[in-house]
Amino acid sequence: MPDIYRDEDVILEVRKLKKYFPIHKGLLRRVVGHVKAVDGVDLFVRSGETLGVVGESGCGKTTLGRCIIRLLEPTEGEVLYRSRHDGIIDLAPMTMQELKPYRREIQMIFQDPFSSLNSRMTVEEIVSEPLVVNDIGTPEERRETVAALLENVGLSRAYLDRYPHEFSGGQRQRIGIARALSVKPRVIICDEPVSALDVSVQAQVINLLEELQEKYDFTYIFIAHDLSVIEHISDRVAVLYLGKVVELADVGGLFDQPLHPYTEALLAAIPSPNPDIKLNRELLLTGNVPSPANPPSGCPFHTRCHYRVQRCVDEVPELSLAEGTTDHFVACHRYQELELKPAAKHELFMDQVG
Predict the structure, then answer these.
(1) In contact, 272 and 346? CB cutoff 8 Å
(2) Angle subtended by helix axes 199-216 and 169-181, to nearest 10
C-alpha cells in the first residue's frame, strides 16, 4: 500500500484504525465485551480523487468516516493527514484544541438533510457557523460569503433568512454542502449524502458534487451502499465487511474484475432497469451479517461465502496487493484460484445523471 511519507499524492492514510464500543451489563455496568464497529482498517486517498466506501448496513462505513474526522474517538490506529502547513500529522491522538486548525481542512456532509440542520437557525446562521467558530471575517463579510456559497450550490441568496423547514430534502442537502464548503476544506467526507433523496434529486446532488470537485479540486471520501452511485462518482473503491476492508481498487478494476467473493455478491445484487434481466440467485448472499460483538474466526466473510475452505475458517487473510496488479488490494486466501463474475453492464443511475 502506498506510504503517505513516500507518495506525495496521498493526502490521507488510515492505518490499523479500530473503533470498539463497550458493552455494559448489570447494575454496576461492567464491561462484558465490545462491538467491533471498525476493526483494523487500512486505506488511503490521493489528493483530488474520490474514494468510495461501500458495504452493507452495519459494516462500519459511517463509524469509519466519523473516526477520521474525530467526531468519534478511535480506539486504536493512525489517521495520517498531509496538512497545508505542518506536513504529515496523526489526527488520532490529538486533543480537541490541537485538532481545531485541521478541522477547517477536513469537513463532513451528513446523511440526513433533515436532522443535520438546526431547525432553530436560519440558513445564514447554519452556513456561517464554521466561519464564526474559526473567527473568519466580520459579520458583513460572513453574510456575503454565505450568499456566494448558496449561489455556488445552486440556491438563491434570497434564502439567507429562511429556516430549514421551508426547504425540500434536496435543497437542505445543498445547504449542508454549502456549510461544508464555507471554510475551504481540502477533504470532504460525504456520509451517504444522497441516500435519503429521490433518485432524480440524487442525480442533481451528485452532479453538483462533481462540479464542485472540478472547480475547487476537493478530495472526497464518499460513503454509500448504492453501488451504481459509487460506480458513477468514484475513482477508487474500498469494500467494507464487518469493520474490515476486504477489497480496495480503482473503480474499473473492482467492477470488471472483482477479487473478493463479497464484492462479487454486492455486484450481483445491483438491480437492472431491464425486467428481462434476472438477478443471479446463485451469487446472492444467504444468512445474516455476523454480530460485530462476536465476529467469526478466520475470514469474517466465511460464514456466508460460497467458496470457503477450512483455511478460511482458521486464518485471518491480510489485506495485500494482488499479484499482477499495481493498485488492487484484497483480503482473501483464494483470490488467485477463483474466477469471480464482474458487474452486469446496465445504466440504472447513469440514465438519471446523464
Answers:
(1) yes
(2) 20
* CB neighbour class for 318 (10 Å; exposed up to 12, middle 13-18, buried from 19): exposed
Number of residues that this document lists for the chain: 354
Confidence band, pLDDT 50/70/90 cuts, at residue 228: confident
Specify the pTM. 0.91
Please name which of 247, 311, 196, 199 lies closest in space to residue 51, comparing C-alpha atoms.
Answer: 247
242 Rama sector, left if φ>0, alpha if ψ -120 to 50, beta otherwise = left
Task: Say how far apart CA 257 and CA 255 lie, in whole Å.
Answer: 6
Cβ atoms of 178 and 164 within 8 Å: the answer is no
- Of 165-169, 192-196, 277-281, 340-344, the least confident: 277-281
Q: Which sign does the torsion angle of CA 164, 169, 171, 175 carry? A: positive
pLDDT digits (tens, 9 = 90+) for 20-68: 999 999 888 999 999 999 999 999 999 999 999 999 988 999 999 999 9
Q: How far apart are the first and last CA of the chain?
A: 34
CB 328 within 8 A of CB 252: no
